[in-house]
């Protein structure tokens, strides 16, 4: 049988595989619950101006409220890194505020249980009135990083996540770590002196460079900390709205609205591409063993590339087709939600380009990895935990880490076009490396399968028993 014929045969067999349709169901469920939401559409629409509200003074001290807002915003954004330090800072600020209030004799007396509150007692106002906003001033961001660095230098240790970034650990600072921190403080002091020469992204890049020097997974990594401040007045809310409006107008003028939405789509859907295809690929080669065809195939004169390569190509094409069709649907739904169905022609090429460039290398690598692990261990079960470990290593942070081993591309926002341009080169390099790695793993699987067959271990039996079993199978088919 020729190679193209074998590829189409494998594609037909995969189309009758129940696991394949379970994969489609999981991908669609993930799409509808994560990307196709009003929150996602909001990132592609113009910001809404604030409505003026009655402004009241809160009894909550500003530093404590600000830190609590930071921790809350970090939790909502799914940033475990931000919540770690912000939570501890929030607790400290709250204790200081409580002690100060007690010493001044200004602590409010709460009514006893079952008693009505005094008539002159006002209900605590919702504060901050207009919520919170992320700090974008380079000087303020630099000041916050300096405070964190000075605190870590005083403590002699830093919070660092270990075991694939999942668990926090207090790492003792070495002399090299302290020297790197002091050097970064000097650099950030320059930012404070001349904030007009920097952008928020450049300041975060300075902290991200320090994170690499410290070994990674520290609170200085990209998106490791989110700096937020209260919006207490209508004037502040309008200033924040004007900043958002200017950012959106810039994206609109540069034609970056649909590219931003396409990146957000790939960020969410790419999580499924990094795990679920392995369930198909890992058990593809084991199918012949379960159907007792493995011995017959091992005895035939079939090239290893034809046998393994055809299955890799068939599975990669079928799964890739699902994601590309989903990219078409996402382009239509996004265009309809933002500008109407008439904008579908503008959104379609953008979503197809990002879907092909960001998702397909992940699908190919996951498929090839499953086949390679099966060839090495002789069991598809081993591929599942190994693939999951690779997925966990690649899933965080939400933006800014695109090293060569990262299976996924995370860019969890439709905005921040400047940040994307900053990382575009690293993203392209990562996708090229992952694509080459996928082909290398498929070739390695073919080579190892041929070695196992030539040594008589293709099915775990001796060559003599393979020959007898193959002959018996051929005799019985006559």
TrEMBL record:
Protein localization: Membrane
MF terms in GO: ABC-type transporter activity
Cited InterPro entries: ABC2_TM (IPR013525)
Domain ABC-2 type transporter transmembrane: 255-395
The keyword Nucleus appears for this protein: no
Main localization category: membrane
Membrane-spanning intervals of the chain: 18-35, 268-286, 307-332, 352-374, 381-400, 428-449
Origin superkingdom: Bacteria
Keywords assigned: Membrane, Transmembrane, Transmembrane helix
Compositionally skewed regions (Low complexity) per UniProt: 57-122, 468-478
Cellular component per GO, a single term: membrane
Stretches the record annotates as Disordered: 42-125, 459-478
Name of this chain's protein: ABC-2 type transporter transmembrane domain-containing protein
Organism: Paenibacillus stellifer
Lineage, uppermost ranks: Bacteria, Bacillati, Bacillota, Bacilli, Bacillales
